[in-house]
Amino acid sequence: KHVSPGERNPIEGKFGQAKTAYGLNRIKARLQATSQSWIASIILVLNLVKLAGEALLCHVVLVTYSARQMKFEPWLRNRQPQLKLAA
Prior knowledge:
Elements: H1 5-22, H2 32-78
């Protein structure tokens, strides 16, 4: 299956991040199983970092939403409905 270059950019970027920041290009294990364990550990760390960032973003959004609800809640309680039903 052919993959367009735009779809490959995030994948290539993650490999670059794994090589520069997490030492994926410096694995010098002698056994194949040990090398595979190192690679799996680095990929696990990449995923944990991404999930931690997403969790932080979700927390910020929830806190912001809660603050807005608390700020506008009294205004919403005292407001009369605008729509009147015709009989």
